[in-house]
Amino acid sequence: MASDPVVHLIDDDDGVRQALAFLLTASGFAVRVHESAAAFLDAIATVQPGCVITDVRMPGIDGLELQRQLKARRLGLPVIIMTGHGDVPLAVEAMKAGAIDFLEKPFDDESLLTAVRIALDRHARNARRDDEVTTARAKLASLSARELEVLDGLVAGQPNKTIAYDLNISARTVEVHRANVMTKMGASSLSELVRMVFVVRSAPVD
């Protein structure tokens, strides 16, 4: 890999940061610590991909607000929320907003490590999906207007004759456009072609 994923640990408690950073590093994870959400956001331009572990209650920007800002900036960093006693309602709110997990203090080491593995796996899958979307979008952009019309018909499940009738062209012309679409999209089957289109159309628009 060009770079390993990084666990970004955010907590205003020095002791918590040091203890968790030691645990994560000893378990083989790359870790970067931040004393506050504001400090993390100030360094966002240099933040490596990975995941975020953040306390829910912190001075200034709390864990929920941090999560909202990450989502607004479309950074795609999975978030794990740490909560103290009585903060479970806040953790549930964070989960509803897309957090991967929440850990109620005090939690055991394995609970944290499991949550981190899940978060990093989610990050890797999201990165692969983003690459797939980018590639498919570029291929779609290479299609002509007529090829896009034929593609829409194929995705709708229409046979060549129906597409030909709707576009007022011959079935043979549809076959030619269909072959061009398959080649330009790099699809070996109709099902693969349809899946590529669905991947793009279901992805958020930048």
UniProtKB/TrEMBL annotation:
Chain ranges of the HTH luxR-type domain: 136-201
Keywords, comma-separated and alphabetical: DNA-binding, Phosphoprotein, Transcription, Transcription regulation, Two-component regulatory system
Record-linked PROSITE patterns: HTH_LUXR_1, HTH_LUXR_2, RESPONSE_REGULATORY
InterPro entries recorded: CheY-like_superfamily, Sig_transdc_resp-reg_C-effctor, Sig_transdc_resp-reg_receiver, Tscrpt_reg_LuxR_C, WH-like_DNA-bd_sf
GO BP: phosphorelay signal transduction system; regulation of DNA-templated transcription
Response regulatory domain segment(s): 6-120
CDD domains per the UniProt record, alphabetical: LuxR_C_like, REC_FixJ
GO function terms (MF aspect): DNA binding
Residue numbers bearing the 4-aspartylphosphate modification: D55
SMART domains named in the record: HTH_LUXR, REC
Record Pfam families: GerE (PF00196), Response_reg (PF00072)
PANTHER family per the UniProt record, alphabetical: DNA-BINDING TRANSCRIPTIONAL ACTIVATOR DEVR_DOSR
Name by which UniProt lists this protein: Transcriptional regulatory protein FixJ
